[in-house]
Design a protein that fits this description.
By secondary structure, this protein is an alpha/beta fold. Helices cover about 40% and strands about 15% of the residues. It has a domain at about 5-185 and about 245-275 and about 335-355: Rossmann fold (3-Layer(aba) Sandwich). It has a 7-stranded parallel beta sheet, sandwiched between helices. About 45% of the residues are buried.
Length: about 375
């Protein structure tokens, strides 16, 4: 069997971690990369892993038919590739068209490319939140009568359904699906992405910084700033007393790499935490690290509406700016779906390890890194699509 892996999404947060691990193992990898030309595509990969004899690059785009590859590209790939690891996609909650192009049409184009190459094994990164508003997500099936809270969830569900239809049409075709939950920083605190946990807390931090600058110069009556810089403001946050399924991004990368060589049997792996933290704990630990107090935690929208009416005009304007961002996170802060998590431990055996505990110390490390790097302003974007 040809052992080469074609990797899409190699310049994204998770994809770059996968590429680095494949390089350390000496695997032959071909990266399909968005760029204006081949040289630009190669430059994007070399910025991650340098020049590697076992890493090849083709310029392509999953949003284009056959991933935008030329006949010469297909000739180059022929005989090199034994499987495709599709890590590309859009993580936007808002851009319905772009999300569909990447997560639905993109899957279709990847499968078209595979059929041209005669490759019949695909490994695909989806999300545990194909569960939508459902209560439970198994590893054997995907449909549970759920509805979707945003285009991202729906498009990932549709992408999985395309894979299943493709495999059903030919008994030689096989897929493996990986479903991570909410990706946060690595176990050492560093991160290659500032989404999820960071996106939730960044606007609160920036609001607090704004209020600190006003200290002694016209703070609103409902805000105080302590001597240590702790801002106390009755900002209203929607969040129920539920668990929130954070998972370290490097743990997910390790588990995917460990599973790459498993026989493809149309399996699905929910890569989620078996002991996730409670939303209340995540909130208070994080706010304490950011020196923000006085927050009003609201379990329902009705309770939040009451809290908003008690705010002064300036704080209410700041609250509205925060809510523009927090609205997308509301479904994940107020529900607690359960996930079947048996397949990875069963199939990986000694290669499996449990994810690290997400506690105050873990979150403090990730937030310290975020503050040091200005929440990603020093980095060049976090788009997963390649």
């Amino acid at each position: 069997m040809k052992e080469g892996i074609l990797l899409t999404g190699a310049t994204g947060a998770l994809g770059s971690m996968l590429l680095e691990r494949f390089c350390r193992e000496g695997r032959d990898v071909v990266c399909l990369v968005r760029a204006d030309n081949h040289d630009a595509a190669r430059a994007r990969i070399e910025a991650i892993v340098g020049k590697r004899d076992n890493v090849q690059v083709v310029r392509g785009d999953i949003t284009e038919p056959r991933c935008g590859l030329t006949d010469d590209d297909f000739k180059f790939l022929a005989g090199r590739i034994g499987r495709v690891l599709n890590c590309a996609g859009s993580i936007s909650f808002y851009d319905q068209n772009g999300t569909y192009l990447a997560n639905v049409a993109g899957v279709r184009h990847v499968l078209q490319m595979m059929d041209v190459l005669g490759v019949n094994q695909v490994l695909h990164v989806s999300t545990a939140y194909v569960v939508g508003d459902g209560d439970y997500l198994s590893e054997e099936r995907i449909s549970n009568g759920q509805c979707w809270r945003n285009p991202y969830e729906q498009s990932k569900f549709q992408g999985e359904m395309l894979l299943r239809s493709w495999a059903l049409a030919d008994s030689t075709r096989r897929f493996t699906i990986f479903r991570p939950s909410i990706l946060v920083g690595s176990e050492d605190g560093t991160t290659s992405t500032f989404d999820g946990h960071y996106g939730f807390f960044e606007p609160m931090h920036r609001t607090a910084e704004n209020l600190r600058k006003r200290r002694g110069n016209g703070l609103p009556p409902d805000v105080t700033v302590d001597d240590d810089g702790t801002v106390r403001a009755p900002l209203a946050i929607l969040g129920a007393d539920k668990h929130i399924n954070y998972i370290p991004i490097d743990w997910v990368a390790d588990m995917i790499v460990a599973a790459v060589d498993l026989p493809a049997r149309n399996d699905t792996y929910n890569l989620v935490h078996d002991n996730p933290p409670r939303m209340h704990d995540v909130l208070w630990w994080s706010l304490d690290h950011l020196r923000i107090g006085g927050i009003v935690l609201c379990g329902t929208r009705a309770a939040k509406d009451i809290a908003l009416k008690a705010q002064g005009p300036l704080l209410n304007r700041m609250q509205r700016r925060i809510d523009v961002i927090h609205e997308a996170y509301a479904p994940y802060c107020t529900t607690e779906p359960q996930f079947q998590i048996e397949a990875a431990a069963r199939d990986l055996g000694a290669k499996f390890r449990s994810p690290p505990i997400i506690d105050r110390h873990f979150l403090s490390r990730t937030l310290a890194y975020a503050l040091q790097n200005n929440w990603g302003a020093k980095k060049a974007g976090t788009d997963e699509q390649a």
